């Protein structure tokens, strides 16, 4: 089970057939060389696998959405959120991580 799920959530997700170890990471910032590398390095260091990635330039802004598998990550969800918050500051980016099911629910009309 992924590191960030409460026990009741695990049961609900199991019954729904959802993959609880998938998360969505969004990255937004001013375009520059090395953004994909910087974010990928954090994922690699924390044993988080990229399942799918999409990036786009919108004028001078860089946007990226990454679907990841956190099943092998040894850190807690809060530790990863802290790591992404620190990276956001250091890299002048907005990096956010959400559970895939939560992300989908938020974007469903």
TrEMBL record:
InterPro entries cross-referenced by the UniProt entry: ACT-like_dom_sf (IPR045865), ACT_dom (IPR002912), UPF0237/GcvR_regulator (IPR050990), UPF0237_ACT (IPR022986)
Pfam family, one: ACT_6
Boundaries of every ACT domain copy: 24-98
NCBIfam families linked: PRK00194.1
Family statement drawn from the similarity comment of this UniProt entry: Belongs to the UPF0237 family.
Protein name (Swiss-Prot/TrEMBL): UPF0237 protein HMPREF9080_01890
Taxonomic source organism: Cardiobacterium valvarum F0432
